[in-house]
Amino acid sequence: MVSGWKRLSVGVIGGGIGGMSVAIALKRAGHDVVIYERSNFAGEVGASVSCAANGTRWLHEWKVDVAQGDPVVLKRLIQRDWKTGQPMSEYSLNDYEERWGHVYNMFHRQDMHAMLKNCALGEAGDGTPARLMVNHKCKDIDLQSNTITFENGATLYHDLIVGADGIGSVVRGALGIHPTRKIADQQCLHCNVMRDDAIKAGLVDYSQHEALEYWGGQEGKWDKIVLSPCNGGKLLSYYCFFARKQGDAINQTWGAEERSVEELLEHYPELDRQVFGHLGIGKEIQPWRLWIHEPYAYLNKQRACLLGDAGHPMMPHQSQGACMAIEDAAALGILFSAAYFDGNVEQALSIYNKVRLPRVTRVQSAAARAAYNINERIGFSNNKDLPFYKVEDTNNVLTIEEMNAYDMYRDIEEKLAAVKEVQYGDSYVCGLPVGMKLLNGIVVGASA
Ligand SMILES: Cc1cc2nc3c(=O)[nH]c(=O)nc-3n(C[C@H](O)[C@H](O)[C@H](O)COP(=O)(O)OP(=O)(O)OC[C@H]3O[C@@H](n4cnc5c(N)ncnc54)[C@H](O)[C@@H]3O)c2cc1C
Q1: Overall average pLDDT of the 251-256 stretch
Q2: Where is the FAD dependent oxidoreductase domain (predicted)?
């Protein structure tokens, strides 16, 4: 416990997965949270969001009712041959919970969002329920007065401002960050298939596999199909990637006019006929325009910070976007808790930056590499004995160990000790135990 803790009024801009998560974390830490969301959440189109153990652990710590999210608990990752659909490699998650303490959940976005929203705004558990103000689109923030100006004319003060306003963040600009970004060479169409429709059509019932399944993504090719079952297995969510030169999805807005099945199928003349059959009965086909952002130099300025996609947008190929937003929220929850927060908002945010920036940047670059090489994907990156295993740099590959063995409390302790110029006594480096051997051969704490 430190002295000086005080209850803050926190303004969270953006009520997505990251915004709801940070509202939960900060209300649990005793603060008064208001979430400002530009939309009213109507008209969202569903897709899956995966939440690996490094995200799930915080849901448990915050006492979120995970069952409300109706997840599928994943048992394996399967890589299939593009043309025949035969399994080429598998990463088993059978011992996943035993090893990492938490399961790998696959949620439907709306269910996950509703689960987090209920927890943030609800009475259950520690803390005062957060308040949600919809139809509040942030126009600008003033860092001197720490006020937020909205398009509806309101101007409101908060002690701490969290920009969780997604990839097109307005808060980011107010913090002086102007992204260097480029359109990815890969594009995506997403579609949903109802399990019952697939069974009626005589197609294989992929939901039985309880797996994230991949077709393609090897040998530097952009073509890849990613299947994730959600909604307790009733819904099969397909992310269908292809080279941008085959068609550019200019409209990235979810809930826009649906695309035709023909447009989706034309990219995949040689695809395994089973999964091709699934795509042929796909619904709610939506384009997703992918961007590659260079990492930003910082995540905080004065009494404001960025969280989630606002601070580190990433390609979807490590399925870690939501988890990284949840981890950001967890870091703020710890730093502003009675155990750590001494009343100095700026200092707490500077530690947040030191803890989060290296980790999110590492995941961000690994996600970009996995776009064209599935061997770089966490899980498959451990299958190094396979004959077709090839990664850019074995020493730099992102492993499941560093994602799931990461101890954020210890990482924060280490960074705090450095700022206070005191000795850090634990045998951890950046939240990983000294001596832990990563599958890429690196031993944590060993000199290079
Ligand atoms: C189709 C799709 C599939 C994905 N699949 C996965 C996956 O499988 N696994 C995974 O880990 N990640 C996945 N991601 C990424 C993941 O959803 C995001 O990384 C994660 O949701 C980050 O959440 P966020 O809150 O930062 O941003 P968002 O979820 O984008 O939320 C931002 C919120 O801010 C609001 N907003 C924006 N501007 C303003 C403003 N000016 N004022 C007020 N409010 C504003 C928006 O309306 C929105 O509600 C996927 C993303 C997409 C789009």
Answers
A1: 56
A2: 10-122
Q: How many angstroms separate the CA atoms of 319 and 315, rounded?
A: 9
- Cα–Cα distances in angstroms (integers) from residue 23 to residues 27, 50, 143, in the given order: 6, 20, 21
Cα 214 to ligand 1 centre (Å):
23
Q: How far apart are CA 405 and CA 362, in angstroms?
A: 15
Name the domain boundary from 377, 393, 418. 377
For residue 443, the 8-state DSSP code is: B
- How would you list the strands of the sheet with 147-150, edge to edge? 138-142, 147-150, 155-157
Note the pLDDT tens digit of each residue in 340-365: 999 999 999 999 999 999 999 999 99
What is the Cα 417 distance to its own chain's centre?
Answer: 29
Residue in 22, 24, 38, 186 to alter for ligand 1 test, most ligand atoms within 8 A of Cβ: 38
The whole-number average pLDDT for the span 168-190 is: 93
Are 220 and 260 members of one domain? yes
**CATH number, position 23:** 3.50.50.60
Measured from the CB, is residue 164 less than 6 Å from ligand 1?
yes
Q: Whose CA is nearest to atom 27 of ligand 1?
A: 166
Residue type, 175: L
CA angle at 367 for the pair 362 and 371, rounded to the nearest 5°: 150
Tens-place pLDDT, residues 196-238: 999 999 999 999 999 999 999 886 789 999 999 999 999 999 9
My answer on whether 279 and 249 are in the same domain is yes
Angle of helix 345-370 versus helix 408-420 axis, rounded to 10: 130
Domain co-membership, 35 together with 111: yes
How far is Cα 431 from Cα 413, in angstroms, rounded to an integer? Answer: 9
Beta bridge partners of 156: 148
